[in-house]
Amino acid sequence: MLEQFQLIAQSIVHLEQRMIRMDQRIERMDQRIEQMDQRMEQMDQRMTEMDERLTREIRESEARTRLYIENTVTKKIDVLFDGYQQNFEKQRELEERTEQMQEQIADLQVRMAVQEGKTA
Fold first, then answer.
1. pLDDT for residue 3
2. pTM listed for this prediction
């Protein structure tokens, strides 16, 4: 019976040693998992920082684009509109002068016809 107790005791010691090794392995795995968690947190933080930086850069670029449009494109559109309006006004003026000249030519043709009729 003593042998059986010794065998049981050896088995228990052997099991305890195995349990200790398993605990050590589990601790190492826990450490690795913690390291992975830390790395993931760092990556998440970096991604958040990149997202904030990109958002800020996009907003700045949008503001610069708006300013460019307001300062350059809008002014050019205004200048083009003014030029169009001047052309329209000048065309209207030329049309009126053309109409006046046509009336004068018609009047002169009538006078010539009258003069030719008197002399003939």
1. 87
2. 0.50
